[in-house]
Protein 1
Amino acid sequence: MDMELNTPSLEILDPGFMEAINRSVPAPFLIKTYQLVDDPATDHIVSWSDDDNNNSNAFVVWRPPEFAKEILPNYFKHNNFSSFVRQLNTYVSSTHSI
């Protein structure tokens, strides 16, 4: 006896559905970056900016060598500060400085 599987077809979904889902979930890089900046234990190396103009939407890497050596490997598969900045630039508009 053959059984037919009743699996939903992706064709019946609204074309904008997946696009909306993808927009609402931050990229893993952004989640990890937020976590490492938001950790109070690392404020001496990286922390949120105190600049009132940015409303805490910016962060400062106070000690790049320590950031690369001690923090990046805990969140990413590398310890290259330049690679981190390059990837960050893909998410930051040109009006912000890095």
Note: The longest helix spans residues 64-75.
Protein 2
Amino acid sequence: MLSEETPNETNPKESIMKTIIENKLTEGITLRVTFTKKDGTERVMTCTKNMEKIPVEHHPKGTGKPRTSDAIAVFDLDNNGWRSFSPSSVLAVESIYN
């Protein structure tokens, strides 16, 4: 666990993790992210924001939903759908170059 904090505090580790992940996704890199789900189970997800790897029927339409949290929205390549996770729940990130 990174640290306990009040909901309005910004955790520097979480902020750095989010920046690293968002930068890699913006570059079109596919990531394998290991994180802890809200129910406490561990999950490994292969994900991207690279539109060339996302089926056309799943491309975002319009402006999207307003972001109300620090969650990172990604396309899950294994389950073929949009998912999100909190940077504070991330245990590991691996870049997949393909």
Note: DSSP finds one helix and five strands in the chain.
Protein 3
Amino acid sequence: MSEQSSTQNVVIATLPDVTAPVITHCAPAQTAMDDSSTVPDFTGAVTATDNCTGASSLIITQSPAAGTVAYIGTTAVTITVTDASGNSTTCTTNYTVN
């Protein structure tokens, strides 16, 4: 009887994450009835997913920042979601002061 030997090679490849998060729900627009107001925090109303970073670890920011003075008219607020690899995506909502 002949003995056979077997060799098994394992290759582990680490691929970079190049896929941006997906915003599944952008914050809804808001309106204030005041001649001078500050931009609210829209980030809590945003939901997003990512292929590598868990939803609770995604970084959600807005510009202009919450607390920025907004006067009569409409201010566009850009929401940015960034994953752990630095990939990001944006959506835009509005803050209107009447």
Note: The chain is about 0% helix and 40% strand.
